[in-house]
Amino acid sequence: MSGTARTTGAGNGRFHNLRSLAPVWAILAGAALMLSLSMGLRQSLGLFMPPITKGIGISVSDFTLAIAVQNLTWGLLQPLAGAWAVRVGYRPMMAAGAALYVAALVLLAGAQGLLDVTLGAGVMIGAALACTGSSLALSVATRAVNPAARSTVLGVVSAAGSLGAMVAAPLGQLLSDSLGWRFGVLGFAALALCMLPAAWVAGRADKIPLPSASTGVADGSSARQALRQAITTLPFVVMAGAYFVCGLQLVFITTHLPSYLAICGLDPMLSAQALGVIGGFNVLGSLFFGWAGGRWNKLVLLGLIYTLRSFVLAGYFMAPPTPTSTLVFAALMGFLWLGVAPLVAGSVAEMFGLRWQAMIQGLAFFSHQMGSFTGAFGGGVLYDWLGSYELAWRLGVGMGLAAGLVQIAVAYGRPPTAGRLAVA
How far apart are CA 36 and CA 33, in angstroms? Predict the structure, then answer.
């Protein structure tokens, strides 16, 4: 894949270097479907925690350790996957990730102990997500459209990518209730197979050269230089730090909400319904924040999301849950959930350009995944230690408020353009 600059023949700013719009829509549709299934399956794994822990004799903290390993693996490999995509192409990376996802779920369906769960749900799905998740999917979408449409299109792809949980969660719960959790996981594996053709089609982005109008400071740099520029840019560093808290809050919910509702004696199907509602309202939130990111400061919007999420978390966990309050909570959190994806992707593209976008976005995502590790494993440890989730949710609320306010303060104090942390 070459970064050689080319210009559009018409120069009208719609889409660059494509003979027709059809390939563009195919790329966007493939990226959206891949992202939808990748994230939807991953977000719904918490449904299997109660039956898996009982069925093979592992503890809650054992299962959450596997999910924590998944997030750690995903975070560690994401920058590398972004860098490799520049060298070998997006198509090989995404197709390999889809195949690995299927293999991981098949292994998990046959799990007999903690090692199988950790390898399947942890290491293998984590590696697959690095190739099929938001960093590569949104980088592919970014390359297909011009800057004027970028934020809105990223919101649309993220919105479509939110639909997976609406299918995966009810299907997994239905199969698990009627045939057992192993058939529920195999149902997930069947859905994951659909990622293979989606990744192949989205990989057509490899044929699209970087636009000549790209002014990103990292476009002409090596991978090492681009990383150095990222870690010395104050708005990026703050954004990546706040992203830690984002991961902590979201993975705490997807991993522990089913267990929390079971402890409170509510219908297990409510967990699937809540995750499905999160996926549905994800669509609205992604569309809104993708649109808003094209009009207002993306970093300020990120800070507002983190602050509002914290208030929603506090309001829900301060009172005993009911079916109604749980679904309202899921709707509000869903609206504030994946809206961060187009904002972060757009901010990285604005700061550093397109060539190393997936890698630099992956660097920020590494911070997100460290938070995810903490939210999944830390929540399980605190529950095993204290017998409740109270301290865990209180810590999540406090950290979210702090991250949101700092993000807003820095965004107002410094524009989101690449610049050094300190002036020599």
Answer: 5
Query: Domain segments of the chain: what residues?
Result: 23-205+219-413
Tens digits of residue pLDDT in 76-90 = 888 888 788 878 888
Which of 235, 198, 200, 220 shows the shortest CA–CA distance to 346?
A: 235
Taking CA atoms, 28 is separated from 199, 205, 306, 394, in Å, by 11, 9, 28, 39
Distance CA 106, CA 329 (A): 32
DSSP 297-314: -HHHHHHHHHHHHHHHHH
**Interval 153-165: pLDDT, tens:** 777 777 776 677 6
Contact 47, 183 (CB under 8 A): no
CA pair distance 258, 389, nearest whole angstrom: 12
Please give the radius of gyration of the chain, using alpha carbons only, rounded to the nearest integer.
20
In degrees, to the nearest 5, what angle opens at C-alpha 172 toward C-alphas 71 and 195?
60
Residue type, 25: W
Contact by Cβ (8 Å): 406, 302: no
- Distance CA(63)–CA(53), nearest Å, equals 7
Determine the average pLDDT of the residues in 274-292: 78
Helix axis angle for 357-373 and 60-88, nearest 10°, is: 170
Question: What CATH number labels 23-205+219-413?
Answer: 1.20.1250.20
What would the two tokens of residue 81 be?
A: 């996957």
Residue 420 bridge partners (DSSP): 233
Of 210, 250, 232, nearest in space to 349 by CA: 210
Both tokens of 84, joined, read: 């490799």
Amino acid occupying residue 233: T
**211 — phi, psi (to 5°)?**
-70, 145
Q: Above pLDDT 90, what percent of the chain?
A: 9
Query: Which residues of 324-364 form beta strands (DSSP E)?
Result: none
pTM: 0.69
Phi, psi values for residue 16, rounded to 5°: -105, 135
CA within 13 Å, CB half, 13: 4
Q: Side chain identity at 78, as an amino acid letter?
A: Q
The pLDDT, as a whole number, for residue 421 is: 41
- DSSP at 18: -
Any residues with CB less than 8 A from the CB of 35 and at least 6 apart, and which? 132, 133, 134, 137, 138, 157, 158, 160, 161, 164
